[in-house]
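To whoever is on call:

I kicked off a structure prediction for a single chain this morning and the downstream step that reads the tokens threw a length-mismatch warning. I double-checked the sequence; it's 207 residues and nothing unusual in it as far as I can see. Pasting both halves so you can look.
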Amino acid sequence: MSLFAAPVTLSGQHVKLVPLAPAHHDNLVQAVQDGQLWNHWYTAIPHPEAMATEITRRLDLQAKGSMCAFAVIDPATDQAVGMTTYMNIDAANRRVEIGSTWYRQSVQRTLMNTQAKRLLLAHAFEQLNCIAVEFRTHFFNQQSRRAIERLGAKLDGVLRSHQINPHPLAAGTLRDTCVYSIIASEWPTVKAHLDHQLRRQREIIPD
């Protein structure tokens, strides 16, 4: 089967995105323990003991064509510090969602995330010829919402009572999902904005 979004390596100065593989397991277990990320009730981040299952789940979806899974690599250490994906891939309508993303706490709010999104968006619009790229997050995930808005994505709307939250700390509660997108005609402006943000951040956080 020919995949719309086939596994690919995307590289920048501050981050490298490589096809997710079982070999990333141990690094990812260490990464998720930095900040005990699985305790965030408003998002789905794997528990260390469930990391192998999560890697398998993502690779199974990739084989079916609905996901393209990446390990996020810190070039300074060559170790995996998180995961991200193209998900809910709609090849017929040339749409993807960037999501199922998490980073170890020590690299959050750094150049790494900005550049990772810049790489993913550029590949989606310039190589995959996407019409739109979508982002979704929990209404109460304020950090994620601010990060998405800083990219230049626009809020399309809120899907109210969209999902039942399975997290043990909020079992049975209902998730309102905020849906954001960037469309192809906006990409040149968003790209200029992200390049400016990267230059500005480099001045604040010298290499």
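Update from on-call: the warning came from a stale cache, not from the record. Cleared it. Sanity check on the structure: Residues 36 and 135 are 24 Å apart (CA to CA).
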